[in-house]
């Protein structure tokens, strides 16, 4: 029933946001009416707290136009050399006309320097927003202000988007202090030190934007930051704590940031996206759904199991001279978890009888160390040299107690896994501009990775050994008790690239790029000494492979205001050689890989973009040996990825409408992807001799999104609204027990977010979404459906100048044909500032004491329920000191 209520509610709210609008027109002229005032700034503010509602600039003749909604506003008009004019106006007509008169400021004209304090200013490709015009009561971090900037969207994962493009970096005074993790800067920099927030769109139309933060002058040349210490207990009467500090130092030559956090409440300074960015292998291509690159809110409560987290980070940029600069990024993150989980699978295929249940007690500890140093040398304006040396190391260890019940058979096992992954990376690049029209660049990149994985199995019951003996290896006894295996892997990658770019005419370029890439891996498998049988090779993952890719690329680019066109025509030669214990694959071939992007304006503030790309991906660093592995220590899985290349053709269509000063944005996107030879095979061995084979073949994927934002007022409360509709369709095939199975997965999501930004005593955030998954299978006559609903409300109350209070209540709801699952979370915060820089804080997490998070997943083979134990109620009290 909730889905039927929520859907029209979202459409009604979305429609109403754009109703009762008015076009406010007028002209800015001098007080004596002798002449117009060109390029004056016309600002509508909220009458109660002076927060920005809408903004426009007059043209050369003094005419201006603002689109807003009915209401009473404070109208502020100003221009350099004139006294500002402030008045209260009521807009109650669909077309509202009013001229504004400015008086010349003779004193200002005598000043040597005039400071422009406009809320929004633009220069070239940079938009500057005055932080004071967008801040609100209760703002603590940079993120709180960023959420209120027009067209800057922050989802619940911390990802930042501007006009549909993801912000990949946040600079401070022009320098990147944590380049792979803009969320870390966004959630650490104190809000009260920010002077301006600048959005740099980039010189190229398809370049991702970045943010640059200007710091207040009185905060430069001093150390500023905060220190927080918390102590308390959780629902198990166990001690809970959090120690946190961050410090910044900014001056023209040195910019430095230090962050440290140790806690037992699951707070992560370093997010998953940042971890993936730091650990990614630039040579390994990976397919990603377009939906991941769009400003999609993915609300998910971050309530951890019992864990301990330690994090420390230090980054600095030091300018030795105008020509030489050193950058350094260093951090360490350690996480320890202890949790209990239960997995239940109901199989849709009639040949598999019974319910599969798996319970798991696990203790896991992960550590990650990263250190990177860059030396930048610019001997002249036209020449740059950059050298990078980086070291990263990932360590992981886990211990499991695992029990499985399936088809009247019980099995249990103790498991220990140890993993070590040190990595070195060296990269150097050089670029030079020749006679302004020609640019040449070279780069070399080398990467060395070593991975060691150890698996220890103990106390495995005989039924598991007999199962493997009868169905996999044809001999009577195959002991798996006290089994220990070790896999060692060494991977070396290099890349050489040369690029020549010539300016044919203004904003028109052509060039050529040559690239050579190599991936080389050696992997050895050490089997137990008590295994003296030839059939142990079926467990052997030993393999070596090399992939050579040599390519030449011709490109042509046009970056005119009314047309942006880019085409890359790539001819690549692949030399692929895989040598495994049981199989071998060799391949040499040429592939044509074009890419075309076109972008042009339809009208003022509107733009449409079209794109096409073909790419090829080959297996790399995967299990290509088709060897047997252990899944949940009850089922044996024989898994393999395709030895064939994966060819993907993708077409994209984007539409963007942006009215910056009226704070309206509409973004829509549609993409179609067709994949060939995307095959993955799994063989599941069950008790009683049931052998099931599942070969997945992905055929087509379609994704569509409509996303809109608008600012408006309800009474005297300024609000910003975001609404989005997402649709995704994936068509695939699998072969199940020899039968062809065509299945389609349809995903639809509707979401609405409302946020207030009042400078008064109250602010509120509301978020709600409904999403639906439908899985249609040719082997199952009925459609498998899963609905998910989420509601979140977060009000903030400023009781007086010293005390504020906030809470957040979140509800999740899962529904399929057989069951409903719901759970609720409540978090609270109280802050008391008893002296200027000292705060007493009281925080409560999971006040309702929800002890597990349940989720439901759909696959063509089974419906899976997953319940994971989480940390219960935790109460903390502490002190926060700002320096």
TrEMBL record:
- Determine if DNA-binding is one of this entry's keywords: no
Which residues are in coiled coils? none
Q: State the UniProt keywords alphabetically.
A: Signal
- Write the protein's name: Outer membrane protein beta-barrel domain-containing protein
Does the entry feature the keyword Signal, yes or no?
yes
Q: Which domain of life is it from?
A: Bacteria
User: Where are its TM segments located?
Assistant: none
Q: Where is the signal peptide?
A: 1-19
InterPro entries referenced in this protein's UniProt entry, alphabetically: CarboxyPept-like_regulatory (IPR008969)
| One Pfam family named in its UniProt record | CarbopepD_reg_2
């Amino acid at each position: 029933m909730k889905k039927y209520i929520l859907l029209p509610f979202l459409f009604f709210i979305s429609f109403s946001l754009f109703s009762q609008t008015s076009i406010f027109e007028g002209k800015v002229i001098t007080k004596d009416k002798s002449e117009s005032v060109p390029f004056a700034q016309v600002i509508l503010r909220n009458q109660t707290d002076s927060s920005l509602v809408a903004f426009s600039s007059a043209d050369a003749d003094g005419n201006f136009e603002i689109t807003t909604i009915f209401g009473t506003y404070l109208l502020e008009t100003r221009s350099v050399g004139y006294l500002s004019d402030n008045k209260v106006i009521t807009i109650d007509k669909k077309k509202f006309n009013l001229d504004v008169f400015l008086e010349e400021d003779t004193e200002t004209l005598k000043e040597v320097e005039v400071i422009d304090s406009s809320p929004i200013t633009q220069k070239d490709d940079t938009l500057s927003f005055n932080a004071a015009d967008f801040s609100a009561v209760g703002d603590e971090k940079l993120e709180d202000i960023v959420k209120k900037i027009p067209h800057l969207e922050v989802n619940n994962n911390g990802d930042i988007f501007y006009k549909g493009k993801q912000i990949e970096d946040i600079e401070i005074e022009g320098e990147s202090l944590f380049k792979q993790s803009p969320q870390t800067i966004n959630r650490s920099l104190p809000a009260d030190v920010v002077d301006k927030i600048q959005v740099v769109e980039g010189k190229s139309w398809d370049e991702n934007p970045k943010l640059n933060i200007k710091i207040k002058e009185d905060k430069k040349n001093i150390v500023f930051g905060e220190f927080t210490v918390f102590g308390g207990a959780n629902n198990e009467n166990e001690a809970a704590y959090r120690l946190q500090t961050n410090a910044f130092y900014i001056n023209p030559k040195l910019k430095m940031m230090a962050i440290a956090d140790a806690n037992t409440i699951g707070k992560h300074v370093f997010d998953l996206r940042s971890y993936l960015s730091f650990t990614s292998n630039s040579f390994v291509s990976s397919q990603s759904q377009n939906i991941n690159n769009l400003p999609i809110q993915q609300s998910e409560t971050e309530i951890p199991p019992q864990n301990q987290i330690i994090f420390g980070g230090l980054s600095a940029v030091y300018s030795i001279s105008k020509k030489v600069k050193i950058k350094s990024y260093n951090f360490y993150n350690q996480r320890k978890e202890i949790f209990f989980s239960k997995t239940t699978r109901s199989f849709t295929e009639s040949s598999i009888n019974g319910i599969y249940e798996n319970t798991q007690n696990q203790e896991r500890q992960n550590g990650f160390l990263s250190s990177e140093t860059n030396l930048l040398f610019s001997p002249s304006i036209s020449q740059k040299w950059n050298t990078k040396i980086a070291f990263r190391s990932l360590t992981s260890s886990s211990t499991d107690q695992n029990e499985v019940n399936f088809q009247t058979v019980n099995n249990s096992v103790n498991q220990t896994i140890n993993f070590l992954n040190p990595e070195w990376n060296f990269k150097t690049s050089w670029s030079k501009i020749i006679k302004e029209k020609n640019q040449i660049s070279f780069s070399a990149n080398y990467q060395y990775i070593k991975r060691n994985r150890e698996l220890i199995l103990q106390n495995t019951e005989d039924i598991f050994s007999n199962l493997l003996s009868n169905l996999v290896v044809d001999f009577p006894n195959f002991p798996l008790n006290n089994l220990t295996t070790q896999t060692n892997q060494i991977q070396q990658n290099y890349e050489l690239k040369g690029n020549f770019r010539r300016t044919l005419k203004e904003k028109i370029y052509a060039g050529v790029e040559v690239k050579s890439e190599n991936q080389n891996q050696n992997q050895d498998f050490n089997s137990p000494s008590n295994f003296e049988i030839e059939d142990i090779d079926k467990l052997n993952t030993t393999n070596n492979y090399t992939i050579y890719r040599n390519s030449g690329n011709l490109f042509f680019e046009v970056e005119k205001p009314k047309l942006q066109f880019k085409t890359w025509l790539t001819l690549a030669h692949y030399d692929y050689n895989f040598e495994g214990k049981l199989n071998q694959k060799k391949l040499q071939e040429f592939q044509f890989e074009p890419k075309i992007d076109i972008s042009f304006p339809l009208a003022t503030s509107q733009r449409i973009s079209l794109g096409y790309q073909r790419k090829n991906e080959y297996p790399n660093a995967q299990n290509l040996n088709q060897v047997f592995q252990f899944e949940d220590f009850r089922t044996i899985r024989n898994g393999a990825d395709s030895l064939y290349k994966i060819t993907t053709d993708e077409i994209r269509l984007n539409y963007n409408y942006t009215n910056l000063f009226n704070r309206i944005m509409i973004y829509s996107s549609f993409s179609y992807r067709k994949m060939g030879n995307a095959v993955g095979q799994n063989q599941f061995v069950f008790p009683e001799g049931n052998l099931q084979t599942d070969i997945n073949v992905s055929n087509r994927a379609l994704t569509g999104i409509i996303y809109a934002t608008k600012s408006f007022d309800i009474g005297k409360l300024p609000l910003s609204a975001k609404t989005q509709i997402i649709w995704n369709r994936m068509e695939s095939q699998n072969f199940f027990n020899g039968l062809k199975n065509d299945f389609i997965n349809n995903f639809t999501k509707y979401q609405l977010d409302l946020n207030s930004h009042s400078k008064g005593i109250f602010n509120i955030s509301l978020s709600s979404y409904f999403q639906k998954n439908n899985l249609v299978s040719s082997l199952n006559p009925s459609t498998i459906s899963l609905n998910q609903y989420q509601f979140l409300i977060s009000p903030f109350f400023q009781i007086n100048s010293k005390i504020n209070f906030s809470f957040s209540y979140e509800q999740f709801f899962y529904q399929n044909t057989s069951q409903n699952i719901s759970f609720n979370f409540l978090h609270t915060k109280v802050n008391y500032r008893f002296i200027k820089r000292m705060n007493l804080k009281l925080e409560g997490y999971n006040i309702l004491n929800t002890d597990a998070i349940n989720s439901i997943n759909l696959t063509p083979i089974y419906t899976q329920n997953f319940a994971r134990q989480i940390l219960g109620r935790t109460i903390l009290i502490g002190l926060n000191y700002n320096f």
